[in-house]
Amino acid sequence: MNVRRKLEIFASKFQKIRIKLFGGLLVPVFLLALYGIIFYQQSEKAIIHNYEESSADTLNAVSDFIDFGLKAVEQKSLELQLDSNLKKYYNKNTGVADKLKAYDILSENIIVAETTNSFISNVYMFGDNGEGIPSNALNAKNLYQSFMESEQGKKFEGKGLFYLWAGEHKAIDEKLKTNDSESYAISLIREMSKGNGFVVVDISTQRILDMFSKYDMGEGSMIGFVTGDGREVLTNTEEAKIFGDLSYYQAARDSDELSGYSYEKYKGENYLYLYSKLESIDAAVCALVPKSTILEQVRYLKILNIAFVTIACIFAVLTSVVIAGGISSTIISLKKLVSQVAKGDLTAKFDTKRKDEFLILSSGISSMMDSMRKLIGEVQTVGSEVSDSAGELSETSDDLLTATRDISQTIENIEQGIVQQADDTEHCLTQMNKLSGQINQVYNNTHDIEQIAENTKVIAGEGIGMINELSDKSKATADITHNVIGKVEEFEIQSKHIANFVTIINEIASQTNLLSLNASIEAARAGDAGLGFAVVASEIRKLADQSVQAANQIQGIVKETHTKIADTVDTAKQAKNIVESQTESLNRTIVAFNNINDHVKELVNNLNNVSLGIKTIENAKEDTLVAIESISAISEQTAAASEEMNATAINQLNSVELLRQSAAALASDSKKLEEVIKIFKIS
Asked: Residue 355: phi, psi to the nearest 5?
């Protein structure tokens, strides 16, 4: 129980306005902080992505520029190789003067190449016949043989290799005694066209480093030019080799992608690894950028976000403290005044200096207190009057109680006499009801007989109507039969006319045959000139024969039709005789139905007279029954009224008793009310 109480006390602390206001202000601050975090994360992603793309583009640009420079070096080395002076100089058959001239020209060309192309640091020429060029290669005895014995020289033996890019040429450096491989980043070794010497062009390391220095990829970042044989030219580091032993460099070198980037580990730290391969040679430009350097660019966003959210939280706390303090002080003041009113002091004044809703609340409470003071004053006045009236009401209720008891006794005596009268009336009503039932039975039987007679009359009338209708239809049938006979006789006359027409057609066909025969005779007399006319005459004769056949067929059909018409006329006449006989039978039936109808009418009239007599008896019975029922009803009403009056008197007696008790209670309550009202102070 104590634990529950402690929990309720702890929970009640969060119900305070100060806590709710503070919580309400912290919600938008929280949302603002959430927005700041999301904005920072999205900004971080966008800035890092832009940095990654920018760095990759920069590295690709460096790679493309180096690739462009190396292609120019390849072109220059090819020009030097194809120079005719080089062929003269290393030709055994060339004279001394021509060799010296060729040497001067070649030396001059080398100086021009080293001067005009910043990528070229040194150019060497040496062969199996003659001294090396320039002067530092003159004293290198057997340089060609030493190089051919080295690993690089052996690559040119019988393999069709024309040139080779190498990170170092140790055999040449040792023979020249320079031991200065740091001055060049990579070298192009090109074999002469006849295979009797080489042109070597060194790419300047300083030129590569100068190019790297133009692109600052951030603090701690390292850029390197890595050749296919593992030579590295690095910047921003003291180490001689970085990328060659890294697994992700080896994976990128073996992949088909020309460029790319990823986040990798280097010495336990996260780095952005970027690479871009050269298209013309087996080499790449690589870079490692610390991730912390990239994140440094978005650090100010994090600081700004934290500072902004912190200021918003402080502002929210201060605002909630000020607002909650003002509200709390006003509520405490109102609480004291309400406690004063609860003790009965209605003289308290609810005033406030605030101009907000608390001013409206104070004004409302003040108006309520004015109404309460007025109400208490009126209640005090009315309470005294009620106390006096309660005493008078108690005395009056005692007198009314005595009178009501006397009235109740008188009503009870009247009720006994009325009940006896009601019983006698009820017995008389029962006897009249039995008589009424017997009269109703006779009336109902008479009514049933009358109804049967009426139904018989109706059925007889319907039978007469149906017979009349049948008679009319028989007459119509006779008329139709007469018309049919007339039409058939007319049709017989018309068929005779058709037979006459057939006779005429036969005569015309006979005449046509004669004409055709005459025409054939005349055509025969005419010879060949009458052949056409003979054909026409033959066709006319055929038509005449066909007409005769058709006429004979028509005549046969007409004869058959004439025979059937005669049969039809006989049948129609027989039908006419039958219809006339049927009409006479219907007339006799109508006479019989009329006799039945007359007798039924007489029976109905007699039944009507009987019904009228019974109706008169019924009316007299009804009047008597109504009178007895009225007497019985009045008796019952009187008995009910007396019972109701007795019940009313008893209720009134009880009510008067309750009134007396209520008057006593009212007097007691009015005294208590006076005592309670005295507690309130209204002035």
From this structure: -110, 10
DSSP type of residue 665: H
Element (H, E) at 156: none
CA distance 294 to 276: 20
Instruction: State how far the Cα of 372 lies from the Cα of 605, in Å rounded to an integer.
Output: 93
Give the global pTM: 0.46
On whether both 526 and 634 belong to a single domain, the answer is yes
Is residue 664 located within the same domain as residue 531? yes
Residues 413 and 274 in one domain: no
Residue 283 DSSP class: E
**Domain stop point among 272, 300, 328:** 300
333 Cβ contact list (under 8 Å, min separation 6): 352
Long-range own/partner contacts, residues 384-389 (CB < 8 A, 24 or more apart): 384/674, 386/666, 386/670, 386/673, 387/667, 387/670, 387/671, 387/674
Q: Are 83 and 301 in contact (CB under 8 A)?
A: no
**Which run of H or E residues covers position 571?**
helix 531-677
CA nearest to 434, candidates 636, 632, 621 = 621
Q: Note whether 319 and 28 are within 8 A (CB).
A: no
Long-range contacts of 373-379 (CB under 8 A, 24+ apart): 373/346, 373/682, 376/346, 376/677, 376/680, 376/682, 377/682, 379/673, 379/677
What's the CATH code of the domain at 580?
1.10.287.620
Q: What's the pLDDT score for residue 418?
A: 65
Exposed/middle/buried for residue 55 (C-beta within 10 Å: 0-12, 13-18, 19+): buried
Residue 417 and residue 394: Cα distance in Å, rounded?
A: 37
Nearest to 203 by CA among 227, 177, 222: 227
Q: Is 139 helix (H, G, I), strand (E, B) or coil?
A: coil
Check if the beta carbon of residue 487 is closer than 8 Å to that of residue 578: no
Same domain, yes or no, for 295 and 380? no
Query: What confidence score (pLDDT) does residue 91 get?
Result: 86
d(CA 307, CA 311): 6
Q: Token pair of 141, please?
A: 């005895």
Is residue 295 within 8 A of residue 301, CB to CB? The reply is no
Q: What is the reported pLDDT for 401? A: 66
Q: Provide the 8-state DSSP code for 348.
A: -
Residue 33 CA to residue 302 CA, distance in Å, equals 11
| Boundaries of domain holding 376 | 371-676
Closest alpha carbon to 202 in 182, 191, 181, 188: 188
Do the domain assignments include residue 351? no
- Residues 295, 379, single domain; the answer is no
Q: What is the pLDDT of residue 27?
A: 75
Positive or negative, the CA dihedral 529, 531, 533, 537 is positive
Same-domain check for residues 283 and 403: no
Tokens in use for 333?
Answer: 């003041």
* Exposed e or buried b per residue across 290-301, where buried means at least 16 C-beta atoms within 10 angstroms of its C-beta: beebbeeebeeb
pLDDT given at position 31: 75
Task: Give the containing element (helix H, strand E) for 66.
Answer: helix 17-81
229 in the same domain as 124: yes
296 and 385 fall within a common domain? no
Count of H-run helices and E-run strands, the chain? 13, 9
Among the listed residues 184, 183, 181, the one whose alpha carbon sits nearest the alpha carbon of residue 173? 181
pLDDT tens column, 46-93:
778 888 898 899 999 999 999 999 999 999 999 999 999 988 888 888
Task: Extract the residue ranges of the chain whose pLDDT is less than 50.
Answer: none
Residues 6+ apart with CB under 8 A from 108: none
Report how far residue 580's alpha carbon sits from residue 363's, in angstroms, rounded to the nearest whole number.
117
Query: What is the reported pLDDT for 442?
Result: 60
Number of domains in the chain: 2
Residue 450 near residue 607 (C-beta atoms within 8 A): yes
CA-CA-CA-CA torsion for 330, 335, 336, 340, nearest 10 degrees? 140
DSSP 8-state secondary structure symbol assigned to residue 529: G
